[in-house]
Amino acid sequence: MSSYPWAAGYIDDGDRPKIVTSRFQHDDGFTLDRYHATGGYQGLRAALGRTPAEVHEEVKKATVLGRGGAGFPAGTKWGLMPAGKFPRYLVVNGDESEPGTYKDRLLMERDPHQLIEGCLIAAYAAGLSQVFLYIRGEMPLAHERVATALNEAYAAGYIGKHILGSKFSVDIVLHWGAGAYVVGEETALIESLEGKRGEPRLKPPFFPAAIGLYGQPTIVNNVETLSNLPWIAVNGAAAFTAIGTETSPGTRMVAVSGHVNRPGVYEIINGTTTFRDLLYGEEFCQGIRNGNELKAFVPGGGSAPWFTPEQLDLPFEGRQVGAAGSMLGSGAIMVMDHTTDIPKAALTLTHFYAAESCGQCTPCREGGTWLERVLQRVVDGRGSRADLDQLLEIGESICPGSFPHASSTTLGLAATPFPYKMTTICFVGPSAYAPVHSALTLFREEFEAKIVERKHIPVTVGAPEHE
Amino acid sequence: MSRLNEANTLLAKEIIGRYPKARSATIPLLHLSQQQNGHITNDAIAHIAELVGATSAEVLGTCTFYEMFKMEPVGKYLVNICGTMSCQLLGADELMHHAEHSLGVKAGGTTADGMFTLEHAECQAACTEAPNMQVNYRHCHRMTTEKFDQLIDDLRAGRLDGDIPQHGTLARVRQVIPAEKAAGVALPDVPVEPAWMADGGKS
Ligand SMILES: Cc1cc2nc3c(=O)[nH]c(=O)nc-3n(C[C@H](O)[C@H](O)[C@H](O)COP(=O)(O)O)c2cc1C
Ligand code: SF4
Ligand code: FES
């Protein structure tokens, strides 16, 4: 096997229920043999023994919140397709590229059959005639593992014509991307799958469930979302909702990275686990590295407004996190200790979104570039106080009105809830602003310190310095 | 001479056959072409356009949107160092600095022997294992300057040939849909209700 550690990072510690990572303990969890030996394809068999409507109802009852970022319940989304319009498609979103996010790649590399079974259950329940499994281009191992699993599953009669001797027939086509963050947005994903540039479509009015791939009703679901379905088909919605809370049932895969003692990907209980548990708990990250102080953390991927230690006791639950001024997004927490250069950290994220703009909307294309340029100037110690105001002005042009931020007793700030208004087609534009806004709101003195330093830099080379 | 060769043209047709509309195969065929030639040429664009029934301009427009497609030759190994948040917090800048120094090229450059092209990359979905890099998109986790030098030595000496194919080869396993097993494409303009949904959907 490989001398380099593929797909490391999953940590299994503590006694928590496992829904999607149960096979990660096996080195060969990706093989059909192991899958069979651990209850594989039993969910599909259970589903085929019921009507599609019954299976759909079960998934609805389970309230599987979408794991890709928006958190919309899967069963409800399937119900939004116009009745009687066929064919309908399923597009699996395996484009994972939001900064900080690391879970879908693990699921594809370590348990591809679980994902395939999830696709089959979704296709059966929602009447989807063909499945396209879109994997990010920069994940060749995921691609190889999923391709191998698909080949095995075709040979075993789980995919294709008359699945397990039933009337259910569907193909799953492996598709791959070629490097563009914005393609993870569902309408851009569809454009890309049509062979075009990955530019998001304007929505509303038309969501993919109504008008999607080739203009037909299309369900876009995330890899982790679908990976939950086999377990639900076997164990039932009641067992699923018995884990977690009413608004956030089940588990979630969360990647915690940055300045913690034990960064890793954990399957946590949804809705009840707090950020403090995650960052400091023995089962999880075991505190900040070198006994350092926590300064700030990004709770839900690079697009999410930042939190400070004051928000540590919030649970991993969408509504409460939204009310506190941020979002859970893609289950990615990035932790910054007190040694972090905050303006520089913000610049890193802003650079990402500015560089990934598809260029369709002026506020994103121009605004993102300007945010990055002005911020770069400040970080380099060449900025002025007016630059700081300008950053907020540019932000206003992308996101008019008050932008979400966390509360802070020391700063006397009350939280502005998530989400925000925007002048762009998709969230890439606002995401370039979110880190700047958070950093400037919560740590303005760090920006000012960089400006103060500038006084000591001679303005004109060669000119005599007057005291 | 950089149209798809005979074997790859056959493969291309098989891939096209999996989609309700041929143009959907554009990205997979661009990958196939990059695997064959190491980069994408104008002839390849024209050939792919013929195969998927689009114009060359349309295929070129798609091609240039995606970072993985190279219009110029690159090294045998693409060395992509992640510089996004989690990696940056744990030493990505230092790793890039070291890589530039040790390979003797700036980010974006190719070594004189054509072995390595160094690139600044964005989040590689491995953030808990920072700092990360990829060689031909194969992940290398928790990098240090020592590990970097070892990796470059191993690559130069061919010790990783079994693990890391040369640039252009994305995955070494392809999906194969056996004709007798295939359910078939669902054409958008053929509005048939799936068989298992009819009659209340009792299987
Ligand atoms: C800029 C942008 C990038 C996104 N990237 C991803 C991604 O990489 N993977 C993903 O599953 N969802 C991503 N999403 C969310 C998708 O648009 C969509 O909501 C999701 O795939 C739906 O699946 P779910 O309901 O199962 O979560 C992104 C959204 C935006 C706006
Ligand atoms: S917000 Fe940016 S990335 Fe999104 S559609 Fe507009 S220009 Fe493209
Ligand atoms: S930030 Fe480097 S892998 Fe995600």
Model description:
The complex is a heterodimer of chains A (467) and B (203). In chain A, 38% of the residues lie in helices and 10% in strands. The longest helix of chain A is centred in the C-terminal third of the chain and has 18 residues. In chain A, the strands form 2 sheets. In chain A, strands 3-2-1-4 form a 4-stranded parallel sheet, with helices on both faces. In chain A, strands 6-5-8-7 form a 4-stranded mixed sheet, with no helix packed on it. Chain A has 467 residues and is of the alpha/beta class. Chain B has 2 domains: 91 residues, Arc Repressor Mutant, subunit A; 81 residues, Glutaredoxin (3-Layer(aba) Sandwich), CATH 3.40.30. In chain B, strands 2-1-3-4 form a 4-stranded mixed sheet, with helices on one face. In chain B, a hairpin with a 2-residue loop joins strand 3 and strand 4. The longest helix of chain B is centred in the N-terminal third of the chain and has 12 residues. Chain B is elongated. The mean pLDDT of chain B is 96. At the A-B interface, helix 7, strand 3, strand 5, strand 8 and helix 14 of A face helix 2, helix 4, helix 5 and strand 4 of B. Bound molecules: flavin mononucleotide, iron/sulfur cluster and FE2/S2 (inorganic) cluster (FES). Iron/sulfur cluster binds next to helix 15 and helix 17 of chain A.
What is the CA-atom radius of gyration of chain A, in angstroms?
23 Å
Per CATH, the superfamily of the largest domain in chain B is NADH-quinone oxidoreductase subunit E
Percentage of helical residues of chain B? 25-40%
Beta-strand content estimate of chain B: 5-15%
- Enter the CATH topology name of the largest domain in chain B: Arc Repressor Mutant, subunit A
The CATH architecture of the largest domain in chain B would be Orthogonal Bundle
- Helix and strand element order of chain A: HHHHEHHEHEHEHHHEEHEHEHHHHH
Task: Catalogue the unreliable spans of chain A.
Answer: 1-5, 457-467
Spatial strand arrangement across the major sheet of chain A? 3-2-1-4
User: What small-molecule ligands were found?
Assistant: flavin mononucleotide, iron/sulfur cluster, FE2/S2 (inorganic) cluster
| Largest β-sheet summary of chain A | 4 strands, parallel
CATH class of the largest domain in chain B: Mainly Alpha
Shape of chain A: globular
Question: Between the first and last Cα atoms of chain B, what is the distance in angstroms?
Answer: 53 Å
Assess the beta-strand content of chain A as a share of residues. Answer: 5-15%
How is the main sheet of chain B built?
4 strands, mixed
So how many helices of chain B?
A: 7
User: Averaged pLDDT of chain B, please?
Assistant: 96
SSE string of chain B, helix = H, strand = E?
HHHHEHHEEEH
As an assembly, this protein is heterodimer
